[in-house]
Task: inverse folding
């Protein structure tokens, strides 16, 4: 089924954009070492927000992709340097952003339409994930408006639609000891 | 059969809106959704909800502003407003303070992260 034929059949309530973020891909971690748990604990201890994370474990090797606020990139590098098992097993990409479409209503056609729309607009997609309501794509921060424009052509949005943009920051409190398992 | 109450859930976190909505629907409430204060005000005028679960920190128009507008308007001031306050204690140096919350005349406050069972109990209490 061509994207064109399902165009405008799918309706969304809205699109949400993130602040500027840094993308991290940690790869080939040995799952048994719990290095990934150390990583998440350190992020929490340093009060670095984690607006996006996906993990994948295969044959005892763990891959973790996540985003942190761009202004925290240096502190992220510090965490990566502090643990030997990270070594050179990571890649960082600066200046990415999240575009989240909601609600997905568990409709796989939406995933198809969105991937097709982003591809047609020649936008880089570093990763994507679903949550209870949203489908979220990671793309270049400078291209978020282009991504919105591309997606708007393929779905119905409410009258007077404007994407939600971040206007404030919330930092989590550090986890109490033993709070992250 | 009693009339189903209509509850408007307003938050810029779509996942929170979805999870609260699902819980409310499971309790036999009708649900409307909005993702910022401007959209919420439109929905209020159009659908006249019985109760609003309203986040404080939202883009375009925050929950305090919207709550004040609701409570100052004779047409809408009867609507029950429950404010979601994630940062009342943690961010006291911003405009999102507990003091600000009190001046909105909200009917009650719900701390974030939300305990869904407590929220359902609080909603039920409002209609008794």
Result:
């Amino acid at each position: 089924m061509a994207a064109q034929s399902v165009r405008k059949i799918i309706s969304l309530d809205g699109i949400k954009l993130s602040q500027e973020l840094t993308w991290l891909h940690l790869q080939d971690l040995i799952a048994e070492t719990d290095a990934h748990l150390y990583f998440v604990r350190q992020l929490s201890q340093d009060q670095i927000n984690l607006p996006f994370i996906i993990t994948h474990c295969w044959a005892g090797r763990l891959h973790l992709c996540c985003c942190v606020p761009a202004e925290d990139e240096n502190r992220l590098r510090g965490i990566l340097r502090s643990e030997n098992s990270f070594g050179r097993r990571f890649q960082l990409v600066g200046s990415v952003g999240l575009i989240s479409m909601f609600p997905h209503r568990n409709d796989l056609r939406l995933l198809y339409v969105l991937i097709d729309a982003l591809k047609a607009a020649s936008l880089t997609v570093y990763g994507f994930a679903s949550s209870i309501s949203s489908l979220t794509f990671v793309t270049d921060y400078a291209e978020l408006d282009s991504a919105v424009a591309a997606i708007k052509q393929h779905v119905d949005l409410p009258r007077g639609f404007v994407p939600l943009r971040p206007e404030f920051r919330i930092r989590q409190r550090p986890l109490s000891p033993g709070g992250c398992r | 059969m009693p009339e189903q109450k209509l509850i408007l859930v307003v938050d810029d976190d779509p996942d929170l809106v979805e999870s609260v909505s699902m819980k409310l629907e499971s309790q036999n409430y009708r649900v409307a959704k909005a993702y910022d204060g401007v959209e919420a005000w439109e929905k209020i005028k159009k659908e006249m909800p019985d109760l609003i679960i309203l986040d404080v920190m939202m883009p375009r128009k925050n929950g305090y502003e919207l709550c004040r507008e609701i409570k100052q308007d004779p047409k809408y001031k009867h609507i029950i407003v429950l404010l979601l306050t994630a940062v009342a204690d943690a961010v006291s140096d911003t405009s999102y303070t507990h003091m600000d919350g009190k001046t909105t005349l909200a009917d009650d406050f719900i701390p974030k992260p939300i305990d869904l069972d407590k929220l359902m109990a609080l909603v039920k209490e409002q209609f008794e």
